[in-house]
Amino acid sequence: MSKAAQSTASPRAHPYPTRSSSRLSASKPEPTAAPYAKERAVAIQAVIRASTLCQGVFKKLVSAETITKKDKSPVTVADFGAQAVVNNLIRAEFPEDPIVGEEDSKDLRENAETREKVVELANSVLDKPLSSDEILEAIDYGMYEGGPKGRFWTLDPIDGTKGFLRGEQFAVALALVEDGEVKVGVLGCPNLPQKLSDPEGPRGTIFVAVRGQGAFERSLDSELETKISVSPITNVSETSFCESVEAGHSSQGEAAQIAQLLGITRPSVRMDSQCKYGVLARGDADIYLRLPVSATYEEKIWDHAGGSIIIEEAGGKVCDIHGKPLDFSIGRTLRDNKGVIASNGSIHDAVMEAVQKVLQKSKEEKTV
Ligand SMILES: Nc1ncnc2c1ncn2[C@@H]1O[C@H](COP(=O)(O)O)[C@@H](O)[C@H]1OP(=O)(O)O
Ligand SMILES: [Mg+2]
Asked: Phi and psi for 216 in degrees, rounded to 5?
């Protein structure tokens, strides 16, 4: 872990009006409020509610000996429930904004038992209970196609379903995209230690960023926000990098070669979900490598929109393996990009050079 991982920024008030309760209201932002103040506040509250819902299911899952890890139903129920909750709250406050969400209600419409569980779960965190039909409709409100013009939200109700089922990391990821650029990002990480150096300490954290306004972290149950920034480290051999737990999502072999080329000796931090972006943004790691395993896989916008703005606003850099910026303007996927490389910024060029060398070598080996 880098030196910055141990340092903690002092909590400071953020420049937005805070709400004294977690109830959502359609109140207008203060006339003096910063740009996107209402979007920021609503997104935080939506992510808190969805995270609370997921956390409840997750705690039961990790404590219940009766549920086998192969049983995917808990994560399915939480996934649909979280999407229904976030979509419902965003639509209530921003009725003009469409949503690009990961899930649709097709499977749920065919399974009455699961549907009833989703309805009960979603209503447990909503102020006004919704009917079964309203829940299905809220889920399908996430079917927008995205694109270059206007604004839309993008949501992964549970990013890292495999981490959720393993009792490890997962995230609720929400972002606002306007004219192709991510403007607001909120990541709820219900099981992430508030300090990576203290895995036994309190868990559950939220990362928030608005374009041009910095990145912040807060817990699920306190409004106090701490400004976060990436590590100041400049000596690449002293850095640590994070990557997926799932070898099928990112090439761990190539990551190890890149680390070796850069002289990195620390073991990689393997973690599921966009929690990796949060960990990098607060300086607990210095590099994030997502190296394509499949030549045809297209990354989804909901898997990177929230995380990428949080890194950028914390002072870091994000691009694909070719150095291209992630393009959120062409639909539901990042089809013009391959993989993701993120860093604290100061070591970015060195990392990119090593990435190019290793990927070029792999390419040559494959063609021999
Ligand atoms: N072949 C793949 N390459 C990269 N990411 C993938 C691949 N298959 C699935 N994913 C996505 O990786 C994300 C989790 O990433 P991580 O490994 O960082 O936790 C999930 O959203 C998952 O999408 P999906 O939920 O559609 O399967
Ligand atoms: Mg995902």
From this structure: -135, 160
Q: Is the per-residue pLDDT at 16 higher than 80?
A: no
pLDDT higher than 80, residue 3: no
Torsions phi, psi of 319, nearest 5? -155, 180
Domains and CATH numbers, the chain: 30-228 (3.30.540.10), 236-367 (3.40.190.80)
296 Cβ below 6 A of ligand 1: no
Instruction: State yes or no: pLDDT of 62 exceeds 70.
Output: yes
What is the number of the ligand 1 atom nearest to the C-alpha of 276? Answer: 18
Annotated active-site residue in 52, 76, 154, 161? 161
Q: Is the pLDDT of residue 30 over 90?
A: no
Q: Ligand 2 being an ion, which residues bring their Cβ within 5 A of it?
A: 156, 159, 303
Q: Check residue 127 and give left, alpha or beta (phi > 0: left; psi -120 to 50: alpha).
A: alpha
Confirm or reject: Cβ of 159 under 6 Å from ligand 1: yes
What is the model's pLDDT at position 314?
Answer: 98
The ligand with the least distance to the CA atom of 164 is: 1
Q: Is the CB of 244 under 6 A from ligand 1?
A: yes
> Is the minimum distance from the CB of 169 to ligand 1 under 6 angstroms?
no
255 closest CA partner among 126, 181, 184, 354: 354
The ipTM, to two decimals, is 0.99
Nearest-ligand number for the alpha carbon of 169: 1
Contact, 339 vs 324, CB < 8 A? no
In whole angstroms, what is the distance from residue 210 CA to residue 179 CA? 15
